[in-house]
What does this fold into?
Amino acid sequence: MQSRLIPLLLAVVAVFIAFVSAAPFEKRSKKYKGTATWYEPETQGGTEGACDGVEISSDDSIVALNHEQYGKMSKSSKWCGKEIKITGPEGTAKATIQDACPECGEGDLDLSPKLFKKVAGKLNEGVAEITWELV
It folds into this structure.
Protein backbone atom coordinates (compact mmCIF):
# COMPACT_ATOMS: atom_id res chain seq x y z
CA MET A 1 0.00 0.00 0.00
CA GLN A 2 2.80 2.40 0.91
CA SER A 3 4.53 1.71 -2.41
CA ARG A 4 1.40 2.96 -4.30
CA LEU A 5 1.06 6.06 -2.15
CA ILE A 6 4.55 7.43 -2.83
CA PRO A 7 4.14 7.70 -6.65
CA LEU A 8 0.69 9.23 -6.19
CA LEU A 9 2.06 11.78 -3.72
CA LEU A 10 4.94 12.59 -6.07
CA ALA A 11 2.49 13.08 -8.95
CA VAL A 12 0.35 15.48 -6.87
CA VAL A 13 3.44 17.45 -5.84
CA ALA A 14 4.63 17.62 -9.48
CA VAL A 15 1.24 18.92 -10.66
CA PHE A 16 1.22 21.51 -7.88
CA ILE A 17 4.72 22.70 -8.80
CA ALA A 18 3.74 22.92 -12.47
CA PHE A 19 0.72 25.12 -11.64
CA VAL A 20 2.66 27.37 -9.29
CA SER A 21 5.56 27.90 -11.69
CA ALA A 22 3.19 28.58 -14.60
CA ALA A 23 1.23 31.21 -12.66
CA PRO A 24 2.17 34.73 -13.80
CA PHE A 25 3.95 36.97 -11.36
CA GLU A 26 2.22 40.24 -10.63
CA LYS A 27 3.95 42.84 -12.75
CA ARG A 28 5.31 45.73 -10.72
CA SER A 29 4.52 49.12 -12.08
CA LYS A 30 7.42 51.06 -13.51
CA LYS A 31 8.39 54.15 -11.49
CA TYR A 32 8.99 57.38 -13.35
CA LYS A 33 11.05 60.30 -12.07
CA GLY A 34 10.59 63.91 -13.03
CA THR A 35 9.58 67.41 -12.07
CA ALA A 36 6.13 68.51 -10.96
CA THR A 37 4.80 71.92 -11.91
CA TRP A 38 1.26 73.22 -11.52
CA TYR A 39 -1.31 74.91 -13.73
CA GLU A 40 -4.86 76.20 -13.56
CA PRO A 41 -6.86 74.63 -16.40
CA GLU A 42 -9.43 77.42 -16.35
CA THR A 43 -6.84 80.05 -17.31
CA GLN A 44 -4.00 77.98 -18.79
CA GLY A 45 -5.11 75.74 -21.61
CA GLY A 46 -8.83 75.54 -21.04
CA THR A 47 -11.30 73.43 -19.13
CA GLU A 48 -11.33 70.67 -21.74
CA GLY A 49 -8.42 68.31 -21.23
CA ALA A 50 -6.49 66.80 -24.12
CA CYS A 51 -7.98 63.42 -23.20
CA ASP A 52 -11.18 63.26 -25.24
CA GLY A 53 -12.15 66.77 -24.16
CA VAL A 54 -12.97 65.70 -20.60
CA GLU A 55 -13.91 68.71 -18.47
CA ILE A 56 -11.22 69.52 -15.90
CA SER A 57 -10.76 72.13 -13.18
CA SER A 58 -8.22 73.32 -10.62
CA ASP A 59 -10.17 71.49 -7.91
CA ASP A 60 -9.73 68.08 -9.56
CA SER A 61 -6.92 65.66 -8.77
CA ILE A 62 -5.69 65.60 -12.35
CA VAL A 63 -2.38 65.84 -14.15
CA ALA A 64 -1.17 66.80 -17.57
CA LEU A 65 1.33 64.23 -18.86
CA ASN A 66 4.53 65.32 -20.60
CA HIS A 67 4.47 65.31 -24.41
CA GLU A 68 7.08 62.58 -24.80
CA GLN A 69 5.02 60.00 -22.91
CA TYR A 70 1.62 61.35 -23.99
CA GLY A 71 2.40 60.83 -27.67
CA LYS A 72 0.69 62.61 -30.55
CA MET A 73 -0.79 65.77 -29.05
CA SER A 74 -3.62 66.00 -31.58
CA LYS A 75 -5.40 62.92 -30.25
CA SER A 76 -6.21 61.07 -27.05
CA SER A 77 -3.32 59.09 -25.54
CA LYS A 78 -3.24 55.52 -24.25
CA TRP A 79 -2.39 57.15 -20.90
CA CYS A 80 -5.68 59.07 -20.73
CA GLY A 81 -7.84 58.12 -17.76
CA LYS A 82 -5.06 56.13 -16.07
CA GLU A 83 -4.78 56.50 -12.32
CA ILE A 84 -1.32 57.21 -10.95
CA LYS A 85 0.32 57.60 -7.56
CA ILE A 86 2.61 60.62 -7.22
CA THR A 87 5.18 61.02 -4.44
CA GLY A 88 6.86 64.35 -3.71
CA PRO A 89 8.60 66.13 -0.83
CA GLU A 90 5.31 66.79 1.01
CA GLY A 91 3.51 63.49 0.50
CA THR A 92 1.80 61.04 -1.80
CA ALA A 93 -1.48 61.38 -3.68
CA LYS A 94 -3.46 59.64 -6.39
CA ALA A 95 -4.47 61.43 -9.58
CA THR A 96 -5.88 60.79 -13.04
CA ILE A 97 -4.14 61.66 -16.30
CA GLN A 98 -6.61 63.93 -18.15
CA ASP A 99 -4.44 66.39 -20.05
CA ALA A 100 -1.15 66.89 -21.91
CA CYS A 101 1.75 69.20 -21.12
CA PRO A 102 3.58 70.27 -24.31
CA GLU A 103 6.35 72.06 -22.36
CA CYS A 104 7.09 69.20 -19.94
CA GLY A 105 10.04 66.85 -20.42
CA GLU A 106 9.94 63.07 -20.07
CA GLY A 107 8.81 61.98 -16.60
CA ASP A 108 7.43 65.44 -15.78
CA LEU A 109 3.84 66.15 -14.77
CA ASP A 110 1.81 69.36 -14.63
CA LEU A 111 -0.51 69.09 -11.61
CA SER A 112 -3.71 70.84 -10.61
CA PRO A 113 -3.11 73.30 -7.73
CA LYS A 114 -4.99 71.07 -5.26
CA LEU A 115 -2.76 68.13 -6.14
CA PHE A 116 0.46 70.16 -6.18
CA LYS A 117 -0.19 71.32 -2.61
CA LYS A 118 -0.63 67.71 -1.42
CA VAL A 119 2.49 66.42 -3.12
CA ALA A 120 4.90 69.35 -3.31
CA GLY A 121 3.70 71.94 -0.82
CA LYS A 122 3.35 75.66 -1.43
CA LEU A 123 2.34 76.87 -4.87
CA ASN A 124 4.93 79.67 -4.76
CA GLU A 125 7.67 77.02 -4.87
CA GLY A 126 6.49 76.28 -8.41
CA VAL A 127 8.41 73.03 -8.96
CA ALA A 128 9.28 69.86 -7.07
CA GLU A 129 11.05 66.60 -7.76
CA ILE A 130 8.63 63.67 -7.90
CA THR A 131 8.30 60.00 -8.66
CA TRP A 132 5.13 58.47 -10.04
CA GLU A 133 3.71 55.16 -11.14
CA LEU A 134 0.52 53.59 -12.43
CA VAL A 135 -1.85 52.30 -9.76
Summary: The chain has a mean pLDDT of 85.
